[in-house]
Amino acid sequence: MRTSFRLPAAALTVSFLLAACGEQSGQQAAGAGQMPPPQAGYVEVTAQPFTLVNELPGRTTPYQVAEVRPQVTGIIEERLFKEGDRVKAGQPLYQLDDKLYQAALASAEADLANAQANRELAKLTDGRYDKLSKSEAVSQQELEDANANLAVSEAQVAAAQARLDTARINVEYTTIKAPINGRIGRSSLTAGALVTANQAAALVTIRQLDPIYVDLTQSYEELRSLRAAMANGELITTGKDQATVELALPDGTVYPHKGTLQFSEYAVDEQTGTVALRALIPNPDGALLPGMFVRARLPQGEREKAIVVPQKGISRQPNGSATALVIGENNIVEKRTVKTEQAVGGNWLIKSGLNAGDKLIVDGLQKIGPGIPVTPVDVNAEKASAQSSAEG
């Protein structure tokens, strides 16, 4: 009888212990299921002075171009330059056969001497008749004829002098010279070729490449927006730096010499809606050649309180709008619609939507969304700590 009563009591005790253990295990399991909020790496948005730079496409063009043509007709006796060399203004390039022009020069010199002799004779006759007219030894008509002959002879001397000058110029033109400094190209003719005065085909082309022009195009809408921002006080002009131009070469490298903006066209292209600009760039090493595609960076204004944030913190929606995630009150993620103005390296210049002091999330974006609590992690502080540990 005693045995039958003890077994139920023992079973009851075991059941109680099992229930207690099950409750404790359930509590532990529940505690293990509560995960901490995900980490969100952020950068604090700051307002800082920023120079607004426009990057514009452009092509290089020579500072000066001279197509060399003969000014007299003749046969080329000799080419006096090496193709591709640098030449200076006044340097002889071609020598033409000048025999005919030398003969014309000698004839013009003889004509001038003859005219001068006739003038001297007419001058003596005029002086003699002038004295005789006072004693009425010659008539008034004879005196007037002597005066007229003297005037005619002086005009003949002047005409002969002009023909002599022309003959000398033609002789000089038989030596074809470089009109400008620059790099000379390929000669289209060789010795023995006949050339004619002011022919259509150039003998050779000279291009001055130091300095060199860069022709740029800018959207008129961008230019108008910049001017409006400056007028409203959103931008301030950068003074002397406003005319500074920096070039980026096709491979992405920055050209070492900075230039200046020369002018902006006062007309808008009807087809493209762009305005033409021209920059002047030093080219002492000849690294820039005509026809190269480059990108020019022009500082056009400075914003005193600009918001510049990393591009990875800005997302694009299917409709093209830009959004950002920030850490709000109680570390809750908030979604912001922002407007970007332009890309600046790996950053965006923000027009609106973000303010100084906002905590912009840049890391861990795949695990979080609006309304989710997060654990904030200052990205810049972590980098500084890691660098300090590495240096230590």
TrEMBL record:
Multidrug resistance protein MdtA-like C-terminal permuted SH3 domain residues are 306-367
First and last residue of the signal peptide = 1-19
* Pfam families tied to this protein: Beta-barrel_RND, BSH_RND, HH_MFP_RND, RND-MFP_C
Entry's Gene Ontology BP terms: response to antibiotic
MF terms in GO: transmembrane transporter activity
Give start-end ranges for the coiled-coil region(s).
105-170
- Report the sequence similarity comment from the record: Belongs to the membrane fusion protein (MFP) (TC 8.A.1) family.
- Return the SUPFAM superfamilies for the record: HlyD-like secretion proteins
Q: How does it sit in the membrane?
A: Lipid-anchor
Domain annotation Multidrug resistance protein MdtA-like barrel-sandwich hybrid: ranges: 65-206
Q: Where in the cell is it found?
A: Cell inner membrane
Outline the extent of the Multidrug resistance protein MdtA-like alpha-helical hairpin domain: 105-174
Q: Identify the GO cellular component terms for this protein.
A: plasma membrane
Specify the Multidrug resistance protein MdtA-like beta-barrel domain's residue ranges: 211-299
Source species of the chain: Thalassolituus maritimus
Keyword field: Coiled coil, Signal
The keyword Nucleotide-binding is assigned to this record = no
The protein's name in its UniProt record: Membrane fusion protein, multidrug efflux system
Q: Which domain of life is it from?
A: Bacteria
